[in-house]
Write a structure and sequence with these properties.
- The protein is of the alpha/beta class and 304 residues long.
- It is 25% helix and 26% strand.
- It has 7 helices and 13 strands.
- The strands form 2 sheets. Strands 1, 2, 3, 4, 6, 7, 8, 9, 10, 11 and 12 form an 11-stranded mixed β-sheet that branches. A two-stranded antiparallel sheet has the order 5-13.
- The radius of gyration is 18 Å and the shape is globular.
Length: 304
């Protein structure tokens, strides 16, 4: 009997300013399935035993109604809130701050309910079944408190939206397949036959398209929480007067790598990625899901 049951941690607290609504619960599949449902389905098939969601408290009742209550009862679930005051004890922040601090902060909010190895994903991204299998195999190969983490990496050109800019963590990888740096680029777009990003000076620079990018599918052990907490406290101190600063997960991981506190193996996946950034992406995502159903990759009705 297989007793190894890692956790899937899903970031579902974003306000979706580009999309215009709560895309986490937008219906995609033939029977109202959401992208988040296909992610859980793939993870459970790969061997994951528990799902933890990070949500906003204002979304709690709707979340339970449209997500949790539809899941099969044998899937163990939990959820935590990401709010501006979800920062732990004795940590100071600017009282003028109105919203949470992004994806690395989201990870920290789950530290009290996760004790086993886990994988992080975004609620609005479809990562593909093979990605979860790859992540599961990696987790089985490491110890519980190992600081050797992993990133399931995707090719940049396969992660763009034709309807506007996207945010991606651009990765540098050494000859042994380990991440040496990851830089969060918050504005990447296609322009003609080019892929462009806006640099720190506001200039548009060109990318090749074959760069490995982070789609926030990180593979962690419980050891990441104290490391990330220290980084978050430092971030709050350094950005006290910037009430819009974001503590992005790729940037936080980049700090751990450069400080020598962690190593991150890049696990390239053959899976097809797609997701919801803009309203116009929805028709493309629906089409791709129907194609996968036609290929017998998923049942027409996900939850029987």
């Amino acid at each position: 009997m297989n007793r190894f049951k890692p956790t899937l941690l899903i970031f579902a607290a974003g306000l979706a300013t580009r999309y215009g609504s709560l895309k986490q619960i937008d219906e995609i599949g033939p029977y109202g399935e959401r992208i988040i449902d296909y992610s859980v389905y793939d993870a459970v098939r790969a061997g994951f035993g528990k799902v933890v969601y990070v949500i906003r408290k204002s979304f709690e009742e709707e979340f339970k109604e449209v997500i949790l209550n539809r899941l099969p009862p044998e899937i163990e679930t939990d959820y935590v809130f990401q709010e501006v005051d979800s920062i732990g004890e004795n940590i100071k922040y600017n009282p003028n701050r109105k919203k949470p601090w992004g994806t690395a902060h989201a990870l920290l909010t789950a530290s009290g309910v996760i004790d086993e190895p886990f994988v992080v994903i975004n609620a609005d991204d479809f990562y593909g079944a093979e990605s979860y299998k790859i992540a599961y195999r990696f987790l089985k190969s490491i110890k519980r408190d190992d600081t050797g983490f992993a990133l399931v990496g995707f090719g940049l050109k396969n992660t763009l939206s034709e309807y506007g800019t996207v945010s991606r963590g651009i990765c540098e990888v050494d000859t042994n397949g380990y991440l040496t740096s990851v830089v969060e680029r918050t504005e990447i777009k296609t322009g003609g036959n080019k892929i462009l990003f806006k640099d720190e000076s506001g200039n548009w620079e060109e990318l090749k398209g074959d760069e490995i990018v982070s789609m926030n599918m990180f593979v962690f052990t419980h050891a990441v929480f104290p490391l990330m907490k220290n980084g978050f406290e430092k971030f709050l101190n350094e950005n006290y007067n910037d009430v819009k600063a974001e503590y992005y997960l790729p940037s936080a991981v980049d700090e751990l790598i450069k400080s020598g506190k962690a190593k991150v193996k890049v696990l390239n996946t053959p899976s097809q990625w797609f997701g919801l950034t803009y309203k116009e992406d929805k028709k493309i995502v629906r089409k791709k899901i129907l194609e996968l159903i036609a290929q017998k990759k998923y049942p027409e009705k996900l939850w029987k």
